[in-house]
Write a structure and sequence with these properties.
The protein has about 325 residues and is of the alpha+beta class. The chain has one domain: 2,3-Dihydroxybiphenyl 1,2-Dioxygenase, domain 1 (Roll), CATH 3.10.180. Helix content is about 15%, strand content about 35%. It has an 8-stranded mixed β-sheet. An 8-stranded mixed β-sheet has the order 6-7-8-5-9-12-11-10, covered by helices on one side. The relative contact order is 0.22. It holds the Pfam family Glyoxalase. This is Glyoxalase family protein. It comes from Paenibacillus taihuensis.
């Protein structure tokens, strides 16, 4: 196969209260809010992006937070668990941090690796795993030192309504390699250092219901615009109905739904999040596409104020 994705570009999910969303991903997990914009199709809703210092592909989780949003149900056709990778030896730090913040977590293991699994304020499932690969974070916030901070995605656990079809698209369209199988999960690996390990439960999972606390789609990396066009052709050749190429300001995107019900996106690494903000001030200003700029005052008045803030130990 000539095309192989490096792994996850970003993951996009639904959320409820936007301040609680910021408090968890920036305050608890220590990620950087790298872009504050709006849902281009619904300008009364934020679109928030959290990642590493630069907002690098493979580190970005994005949310459409709407206060009062209906809770979804995690199930088939979704990313069931979003995996974050931390440096080797850092899980003890995270156990202590989560305990100090009175955040419930579970310990589990998969393919010889230990995980801390927890939920955000809307019930979205995330987990932390130690791995040697991947550069250390250059972003430090809330008392999390860079040698303990999240490096980016470790990968994801895909909940599929048809595991065989999801396995097929991972291997035969996206170019991942199957590296393990324990009878309960199959593990696949992409070519990148982060966002590259995908686990698929081998038992089909009934379809979930979208809403706050669930993932809308998972995006895979295309290294540039030319390769992106090739990905569109490859997906179409393999029988998937892809969208046209869509300009999302910070990357170009195509979408298709794979046979297990999960909405896949393929997104370009360029141009990135510094195209409209200085790197040192990412996420500080509400950024609007040109066609909404004339409505800025009304849009800002309609959005709930949010702030990135440290979260302290709960009494």
């Amino acid at each position: 196969m000539s095309l192989q994705t490096a792994g996850i570009h970003h993951i996009t999910a639904f959320a409820g209260d936007p301040q609680k969303n910021v408090d968890f991903y920036a305050g608890v997990l220590g990620l950087r809010l790298v872009k504050k914009t709006i849902n281009f199709d619904a300008p009364d809703v934020y679109h928030l992006y959290f990642g590493d210092k630069q907002g690098s592909p493979g580190t970005i989780i994005t949310f459409f937070p709407t206060r009062g949003a209906r809770r979804g149900e995690i199930g088939g056709g979704q990313v069931g668990i979003t995996t974050y990778v931390v440096p080797t030896g850092a899980l003890a730090f995270w156990e202590e941090r989560l305990n100090s913040l009175d955040i419930t977590f579970n310990k589990t293991a998969r393919f010889g690796e230990n995980y801390l699994q927890l939920e955000d304020s809307d019930g979205l499932r995330v987990e932390l795993v130690e791995r040697e690969v991947g550069a250390l974070s250059e972003w430090s916030f809330g008392g999390i030192p860079t040698d303990k901070a999240i490096k980016g995605f470790g990968g994801a656990v895909l909940f599929s309504a048809n595991a065989a079809k999801t396995v097929n698209v991972l291997v035969n369209t996206l170019g991942l390699t199957k590296v393990d199988d324990d009878g309960e999960y199959a593990r696949f690996k992409a070519t990148g250092e982060i966002g590259n390990i995908i686990d698929v439960p081998l038992k089909n999972i009934p379809m979930g219901v979208g809403g706050a606390g669930t993932v809308h789609h998972i995006a895979w990396r295309a290294k540039d615009f030319e390769e992106h066009k090739q990905w569109q052709q490859e997906a179409t050749k393999n029988g998937y109905h892809t969208t046209d190429i869509i300009d999302r300001q910070y990357f170009n995107a195509i979408y298709f739904r794979e046979g297990g019900g999960i909405l896949f996106e393929i997104a370009t690494d360029p141009p990135g999040f510094a195209r409209d903000e200085a790197p040192e001030s990412l996420g500080e200003t509400l950024m609007l596409p040109a066609w909404y700029e004339q409505h800025r005052a009304a849009i800002e008045a309609n959005l709930l104020p949010i702030q990135v803030r440290e979260v302290g130990a709960k009494k």
